[in-house]
Amino acid sequence: MAKYSKFAAVGLLLAFPLLVSSDYYRHIMILALMWVVIGSSWNLLAGYTGQISFGHAIFFGVGAYSAGLCTTKLGISAWWGMLIGGPMAMLFGFVLGAICFRLRGTYFNLATLALAEILRLVAKSWVSLTEGMMGILTIQTFRSKVPYYYLAFGIAALCVFAIWAIIRSKWGYYFVAIREDQDAAEHLGISAFRYKSISLLVSSFFTGVAGAFYMNYMGFIDPDVVFSLYYISIMAILVAIIGGAGMIWGPPVGAFIMVLLQELFRSAFFGYLPKWISEAHAMAFGILVIVVIRFMANGVVGDWVKLSGLFTRQKAPIPSVTSGN
Amino acid sequence: MEMFIQMLVAGILIGGIYALIGLGMTLIMGVMRIINLAHGQLMMVAMYITYVLYFYLGIDPYFALLVAMPALFLLGVAIQKYFLNPLLKIDSIIPQNQILMTVGVGIVLTETIRFIFRSDYKSVKTSYSSATFMIGNISWNVPMFVAFGLAVALTAGLFIFLLKTDAGKSVRATAQNKDAAMIMGINADWITQLTYGLGAAMAAAGGTLLLPIYYLFPDVGSQFTLKAFIITVLGGMGSTVGAIVGGIVLGIAETLGATYISMDLKDAFGMVIFVVVLVFMPGGLKELTKV
Amino acid sequence: MHFFEVRRLTKAFGGLIAVNDLTFQVEEGEIYGLIGPNGSGKTTVFNLITGFYPITSGAVLFRGKQLNGIPTWKVCKEGVGRTFQIVKPLRRMTVLENVMTSAFCRTSNTHVARDKALEVLHFCEMDKKIDFPAKGLTIGDRKRMEIARALATAPKLLLLDETMAGLTPQEQYEGVELIKKIRKSGITIIIVEHIMHVIMNLCDRILCINYGQEIVKGSPSEVANNQAVIEAYLGKE
After folding, report:
1. Could you tell me which of A55, A249, A284, C41 has the fewest CB atoms within 10 Å of its CB?
2. Contact yes or no for A282/B222 (Cβ under 8 A)
3. What residues of chain B lie within 8 A of the CB of A113, using their CB?
4. Which of B83, B86, B267 faces A121 most closely, judged by CB atoms?
5. Per-residue pLDDT tens for A201-242?
6. What is the domain partition of chain C in residue ranges?
7. CA C166, C170, C174 angle in degrees (round to 5)?
């Protein structure tokens, strides 16, 4: 049952541009697919490995600027950024890991947040490289949304599949072990630093690719957006936790919920509600965060599992022991 | 050289206010072991309270302290009681869900204020806002000087509270060892509420004191949240004396950085110092790297 | 060369000397007991052996190789497994997943790891609980799962830290049988334990420490009748 609904969802996504010709709806779907990538990447590092990053904007921004700089500085197509963005983000991920993984808990959160802010401020003020506050403007390659849609779909599918495969491998077990108890993990032969770094590198790679895609798709980037704490780093967290952190299908579900909600509010429910609603969309975000953390700690997907027993890893239903949480 | 001393003075004066904000954060960190990402937003709310009192009732910002601090204390208690404490009972995959909750609270506070006051920049221009006096060749900005004095007084008050009163001792005991404190009969729920309330009130004081020399808009909170955690980490988590040092260091670093290096990168200096401390001074923060 | 050797091991936490000039040797195939009153430094010795705490001075030698100075996870790869006094289950994983995680110590193949984990869980007689989430286990099962998890790393030396504490008499009996079975499979064991009949029953030799210092070394009966040991546990008359 669960399996069929997943196939149906994927089929529907593949057919979407054929069924819906409105550029506006296609645009929303493209953004949602991009957020599937970012949310899933964050989830790999935080939901599975337990390292809560408040700085994923670093990788998104670096990916976006890699693509943008290809045009402005190297004079080649911004599409090269799709190849360069991921590895560049990994490079920053490597540095971030070297700095931050010696810290635990709250200190790790703080350090990631601070590094992201530093990068945002540097991007704003290093005018000779980044054009500063002006941002980077390029010309989009396609006028139709369809190529972008399938590209975003492809990246999202690749990202979710890669993370799915990783979680089922040795790496996945190691990541979760580090999340559950880093000290115990070390005693089981797991180098916490090494595997946290691996998790971070994979996570930063896909976030960087998403950033490069964003540059190509939007044709414009602004340091205050692509390195934003609220619009990117915290949005990535929200996408993952609203869908369900530590679950493969959590962030994809969360991405669609968040992007749709964002658009519903921005457009004042497609014009059906009074205009002032559109100004309340950030407020709605805040309230959503509070409600989700307070009442649905494991997100839509996670607490769905609690309710229906679908998607569980365990084959046999387990009595009483799981209800204790 | 004169320029340097002038900047140093300005840095120390602003640092005194930063220290107040940092003290609030450090209290919360020490007792709850979380970063309060709504800290600057609480400060911002207090600034708007002060603004309203000044604009509509003509109350001087320094007297507004008497309203803003208790108001924020109550707001802080309510946030802790209804939003943060209930999370302790939830087993969530993300261990830092309290931090995320403070993010949510911060967004709601910012947006509520934006809803009421719009995004416009506001400022409180008192008769003494730009008044200065000279000692030698160094000019002292009057509101900054007064703010610094009040900040020192409030800090002293907080220390007396923590060191001399039963409630203050309970706060310190809870910060040291929550389980032991609970066994000794301390009501941890109430202590966390008290702490968050106090933290919010300190932030409120910082905001109110800044208002005559600063400007105000709903998003002002997020930058002060960042400043607050830089201060806290510079000083060491939960260390009240450290927060004061951290506040003044940050104040000086920002003024000197803005003067001698680049105005645009002023905010980046705090961050850089912060990361450098984390990386190269693990000694000061050593106990904290193994939570 | 001894199979395992601790030489003049010392650990100071600030001004507090937790382990003071401790020397002992363990031979292959032995069950070696480490006893002492609460807070005497037994668990600290384990944490020093596994590199979880850096040592202040001295040396830890395992099959001729120096263990001190290498990180905890490498100590595990060298063939030293351990359990924890305060159990550390990977709470949101099932029993099988817990043990598979440690089985990955010797393989990268999921199927091999799963087979190894199932084999170890069968050895520890936990077949019926493989799909239970670790956080829901009873204390007895948690301790048993920790042993299984340590065994899945294919250790040559196993450090057991109070695996019997908090167990029912029946569980203790089963635990003793399990430890004997582990020894029979060729694994050398160092055991920290408070429950005297367990220690007396299992150990070939015993080292008693107090305040991080050696009080006496010897066979179970020698240690049990030693006046200094009795004083350390019960106080002087």
Report:
1. A284
2. no
3. 226, 229
4. B267
5. 999 999 999 999 999 999 889 898 899 888 899 889 989 988
6. 1-79+156-237, 89-154
7. 95
* B72 and B145 Cβ atoms separated by less than 8 Å: no
**Residue in B111, B112, B233 closest to A110 by CB:** B233
Q: Is A46 on the interface with B (CB under 8 A)?
A: yes
Contact C131 A316 (CB under 8 A): yes
CB-CB: which of C88, C109, C113 is closest to A181?
C88
Instruction: Please list the residues that pair with C17 across neighbouring strands.
Output: C12
DSSP state at residue A275 = G
CATH of the domain at B27: 1.10.3470
Q: How would residue C83 be classed by pLDDT, with cut points 50, 70 and 90? A: very high
- Domains along chain A? 2-317 (1.10.3470)
Taking CB atoms and an 8 Å limit, are C100 and A183 in contact across chains? no
Q: Is the separation of the CB atoms in C147 and C90 below 8 Å?
A: no
CATH architecture of C1-79+156-237: 3-Layer(aba) Sandwich (3.40)
**Chain A partners (3+ C-beta pairs within 8 A):** B, C
Which of B103, B115, B271 minimises the CB distance to A234?
B103
> Each residue of B55-100: pLDDT tens digit?
888 888 888 889 999 999 999 999 999 998 888 877 777 777 888 8
| The pLDDT value given to residue A1 | 52
Round to whole Å and give the CA distance between B100 and A256.
20
Angle, to 10 degrees, between the axis of helix A192-218 and the axis of helix A80-100?
A: 150
Structural domain containing residue B271: 2-289
Q: Which residue of B has its CA nearest to A284?
A: B108
CA nearest to C193, candidates C182, C204, C202: C202
Q: Cα–Cα distance between B199 and A229 in angstroms, integer?
A: 23
Cβ of C104 within 8 Å of Cβ of A322? The answer is: no
Which token pair is C12? Answer: 């100071």
CB–CB of C90 and A176 under 8 A? yes
Closest residue on chain A to B275 (Cα)? A111
Domains of chain B: total: 1
Q: In 3D, which of A15, A14, A38 has the Cα closest to residue A213? A: A38
Give ipTM to 2 decimals.
Answer: 0.91
Q: What percent of the residues of chain C are helix, what percent strand, and what percent coil, each to the nearest 5?
A: 40, 25, 35
Element (H, E) at C60: strand C57-62
**Greatest CA separation for chain A:** 63
